[in-house]
Amino acid sequence: MRGMRSLRGTSKAVSIFRPARLSSLRSIFTGCRAVMLPRFGGPEVLELRENVPVPNLNPNEVLVRAKAVSVNPLDCRIRAGYGRSVFQPHLPIIIGRDVSGEVAAVGNSVKSFRVGQEVFGALHPTALRGTYTDYGVLSEEELTEKPASVSHVEASAIPFAALTAWRALKSNARILEGQRVLVFGGGGAVGFAAIQIAVASGCHVTASCVGQTRERILAAGAEQAVDYTTEDIEMVVKGKFDAVLDTIGRPETERIGINFLRKGGNYMTLQGEAASLTDRYGFVIGLPLATSLLAKKKIQYQYSHGIDYWWSYMRADPEGLAEIQRLVGAGKLKIPVEKTFPITEVVAAHEAKEKKEIPGKVVLEL
């Protein structure tokens, strides 16, 4: 590597270079550490490998030197085989969706970021090169500047969950000030982000939860928090809602949520069946089957209850990410991190999540 030197030896990627707009990184970076998924299975299948190639940047892409990446439930599900119809042909892949770090290089058309700038963001659920790596690659629209008021660990826990909640509430339901919002699973990362986004939008929020998260949910601005392990939500919650976000996605929560909606309301579930049906039957049969099932439910609930039914997923949304950044900077949106692990202990981190030893957010530090 002409005129370059690496630091500390923990990553093979070069740490000192001339700031530049780069369409090719081959003369600047060689490889880096990355957590690879060579096959589907338990936490033990994850491998931390050295010298994983750093790909060339497309014109709209940013190379991020990761400082922290969070462990999402989706990461664990992908590791176990969820989405195999998408991922299996490309194994081994790097998993992970969230990242917080510093800009290391930018593509030729990137206008919003400069080398050295602190950023955070999240990849699309089907991205093949994830964020469990020293150097992540994200598009310009998948990143925003990290507020100085939060650490990289804190920032890495936010974007994927918050963007998932944002899409459901803002893109699907289009919530407005003064409306009532019900969140099933308010203690989880997506549910807790949804509560804060809805409160910031001027909505009246009710959430279901387990006992240990109740006070946190109320402190975030929810007007009512129902412990579903000790209370009957159908008995203690009164009135109708304009939007229901169901992060649990069971038949019972769907039934209850639909019945709580007023006409013209929106029910959003995070447990859509597109991926599971495609995994089971393949793209040719599974995708049309999922489309048909969703259309059937939409028609059914529009006819029986006068409401809109959605399978909601995270996707890159520059407007949403900008608003999330604003809320984080203002101290109105945070997702508590319960425990951190070094990236070298990624197997232990996934084992802890698998065994439900850590109910809250887990972050890997690099």
TrEMBL record:
Spell out the Pfam families in the cross-references: ADH_N (PF08240), ADH_zinc_N_2 (PF13602)
Gene Ontology MF annotations: oxidoreductase activity
The UniProt entry, under SUPFAM superfamilies, shows: GroES-like, NAD(P)-binding Rossmann-fold domains
User: Per its UniProt entry, which superkingdom is the organism in?
Assistant: Eukaryota
Q: Which InterPro entries match?
A: ADH-like_N, ER, GroES-like_sf, Lipid_raft_assoc_Zn_ADH, NAD(P)-bd_dom_sf
Q: Which residues form the Enoyl reductase (ER) domain?
A: 41-364
- The protein, known as: Enoyl reductase (ER) domain-containing protein
- What organism is listed for this UniProt entry? Brassica campestris (Field mustard)
